[in-house]
Amino acid sequence: MRDLLAEGSAWLERQRTKHLSRAVTYRRGGESVEVRATVGKTVFQVDKGYGLQERYETRDYLILAADLALSGVAILPKPGDRVLETDAGKRFVYEVMAVGSEPCWRYSDPYRRTLRMHTKLVATEVLP
Asked: Residue 8: phi, psi to the nearest 5?
């Protein structure tokens, strides 16, 4: 029996990637791959104890899991990886990282097609 919800979700993910994304470079060490990513954000509240809460906002990148591969091997994000985004003559460097006890990434859909990775801006480079 066909799973219409899975088929509809796959169609929506293809449309998101086609119409609501931009090219970014995903880098791990000396390897990199250009992928299409949708930019988002997540706000975290971290309980520091004694009634104190810290608020963190991450820049998130939603990428099709099938597109994230280095040297032809599918990978999952890990802390320290970088996402390079170019805009208006500048290259913004974001580092994949976890906030509090949260993981640095999660699946963004129930069918594990899309990865949502949490990042923080670590550098801005002016391009020539």
From this structure: -65, -40
Domain boundaries, the chain: 4-126
Prediction pTM value:
0.90
- pLDDT tens track for 84-115: 999 999 999 999 999 888 999 999 999 999 99
- Write the burial class of residue 59 (CB in 10 Å: 0-12 exposed, 13-18 middle, 19+ buried): middle
By CB neighbour count within 10 A (0-12 exposed, 13-18 middle, 19+ buried), where does 44 fall? middle
Instruction: Supply angle C-alpha 69, 119, 41, rounded to 5.
Output: 110
How far is Cα 6 from Cα 86, in angstroms, rounded to an integer? 33
| Interacting residues of 91 by C-beta distance below 8 A, sequence separation 6+ | 84, 85, 124, 125, 127
